[in-house]
Amino acid sequence: TLGIVADSSPRAVAARAAVKAAAAGAAVRVTSMVPDLSGALPDVVLSVAGRTDTRTALGAAAQRPARYGMYVAPWLMDVASVSASGSAFAALPFDPAGAQAGQYLAALHRVGPGGGTESGLVAYLAARGIAPVQQIRIFAATSAFTVMPMNDETAHNHDEDSGGPGWLAGGAITPVSGPLGTR
Q1: Residue 7 and residue 32: Cα distance in Å, rounded?
Q2: Nearest Cα to Cα of residue 2 among 134, 15, 81
Q3: d(CA 177, CA 61)
Q4: Are the beta carbons of 95 and 137 closer than 8 angstroms?
Q5: In whole angstroms, what is the distance from residue 140 CA to residue 148 CA?
Q6: In the prediction, which pLDDT does 165 show?
Q7: Using alpha carbons only, what angle is made at residue 100 by residues 97 and 101, rounded to the nearest 5 degrees?
Q8: How far apart are CA 118 and CA 141, in angstroms?
């Protein structure tokens, strides 16, 4: 069973309809969920709602996880959403660690602090006349991810080695699937 957290926004209504159509074709039962995830917990939860409802759902999922996890729509894969539970999954049509995202994040950080968003990346690429890579993969994200140095010799500032700002400041995001198609 797939539980969907949605609101009445046009984007959420369209996403919910697309998910329900795909689920029907795959014989997957879909139920509506409230943001606090009260009631019977489905096997997997997907939020296509606004940021506030998604953060509420992610917080609830951290306390009461679904068997196969909590997924968020691509436009919700940001620092604040992932920090609500410490982790989330998303099917993204771009690679947050790829060259296009790296260029966008570097430009974003030149003008001030802040995390990347899918809509920001798309707008940045459009302004530069670049077509975004649309290869969809599932990514797992976690907040507050750090690696401790093994000894004093390796304790120099590793931020210099990171290649620039990441999609989730202080967190990590990694692909957990192969290519699933294009958007």
Answers
A1: 10
A2: 15
A3: 22
A4: yes
A5: 21
A6: 64
A7: 45
A8: 15
| Closest residue by Cα to residue 179 from 118, 116, 103, 92 | 92
Q: Helix, strand, or coil here: 160?
A: helix
For residues 88 and 57, the answer to whether their CB atoms sit within 8 Å is no
- HSE, CB side, 13 Å, CA atoms: give it for residue 19: 25
Tokens read off for 84 = 């609500």
Q: Which residues of 89-121 are buried (b: 16+ CB within 10 A; e: fewer)?
A: bbbbbbbbbeebbbbbbeebeeeeeebbbbebb
> For residue 85, what are its two tokens?
């539970």
108-119 tens-digit pLDDT: 888 877 778 888
Tell which residue, 77, 125, 80, has the closest CA to residue 101: 125
Question: Does the predicted TM-score (pTM) go above 0.70?
Answer: yes
Cβ atoms 70, 132 nearer than 8 A: no
172-175/135-142 β-pairing: antiparallel
The alpha carbon of 63 is separated from its chain's Cα centroid by a whole number of angstroms, namely 19
More confident residue, 67 or 85: 67
85: three-class secondary structure by DSSP: helix
Neighbours of 56 (CB within 10 A): 18
Which tens digits make up the pLDDT trace of 69-115? Answer: 889 998 888 877 787 777 889 999 889 988 899 999 999 888 877 77
3-state secondary structure of 115: coil
